[in-house]
Amino acid sequence: MNIGAASRRSALPAKTIRYYEEIGLLRPARAENGYRDYCDADIHRLKFLQRARGLGFSVEECRQLLSLYGDSHRASADVKALAATKLDQIEHKIAELRSLKKTLTHLVKTCHGDARPDCPILDELSGASA
Amino acid sequence: MNIGAASRRSALPAKTIRYYEEIGLLRPARAENGYRDYCDADIHRLKFLQRARGLGFSVEECRQLLSLYGDSHRASADVKALAATKLDQIEHKIAELRSLKKTLTHLVKTCHGDARPDCPILDELSGASA
DNA sequence: TGTTGATCTTCCAGTAACTGGAAGGATTAG
DNA sequence: CTAATCCTTCCAGTTACTGGAAGATCAACA
After folding, report:
1. What is the distance, to the nearest Å, from the Cα of residue B27 to the centroid of all Cα atoms in its chain?
2. Does position A69 have pLDDT exceeding 80, yes or no?
3. Measured from the CB, is A58 under 7 Å from any atom of strand C?
4. B108 half-sphere exposure, CB direction, 13 A CA radius
5. Do A1 and A46 reside in the same domain of the chain?
6. For all residues of chain A together, what is the average pLDDT?
7. CA nearest A71: which of B122, B104, B128, B108?
8. Closest in A47, A75, A111 to B80, CB measured
9. What is the model's pLDDT at position B127?
10. What's the pLDDT at A21?
11. Is the pLDDT of residue B51 over 80?
12. Using the CA of B33, which nucleotide's C1' is the nearest one?
């Protein structure tokens, strides 16, 4: 299977697939014409990457997950720990964004938003109230 | 004022301050010895940048905000629009992270997390349930 | 005066995770 | 046969810094 088909099946851009190969996440075979040739296991791996990246795992974390996945002796505890850590990070990020949203919402509300030159948002940013 | 002091006053690393200068966000004077010399307006600008970045504005958005800030004829509506757009983006990001959190929470809960080799997290990622 | 040690300078390179584009070979459809 | 599409490699750019090397300058102390 060529890279175009692999791209469609994995929902990953061809560029990204080549990039993943470059950084050693997979090693597809080569056809006689030099084209990459993806087998079912490769597609499986690519889909795995697509899902894990979509869940917010970094590429390095994906590499770990893939090695755990490939290791039939690994404990599910290892994977669970990785996922739990990621969950903490996500919660932290959500909290940060909420606080940010609160501040900005306040600013947008108090800004009259017309043609007058005074603006509470810029005042806040410039430290007028600090 | 040297870059070290400017760094302490603005809560920005010296490296970052030099970087901001490099990309044209400010132009501090130079002392005779070649050292950068920051005046109060520069510090003000740096603090502005520090706050705006912390609120999630990109460097380019900060550049816009700074030019609006410097323009006494600008309408507060311009700033409000920028902030409102940013608010939308933040809300979108929060929604994404929540959905992500939901999926991962489910996976972590269903994973027994012991030494057994089967693991619902990897199953899900590998597409076993898809 | 000498000499540390901290601070400053510039420049080069690297990070994450791709993305875009150029130049050129292979394949497929009509 | 030709045109369009797909494939290859390689180089460069993105965002917003961060790290480090090599060398100048400064402040403080004996």
Report:
1. 22
2. no
3. yes
4. 16
5. yes
6. 83
7. B122
8. A111
9. 58
10. 96
11. yes
12. D25
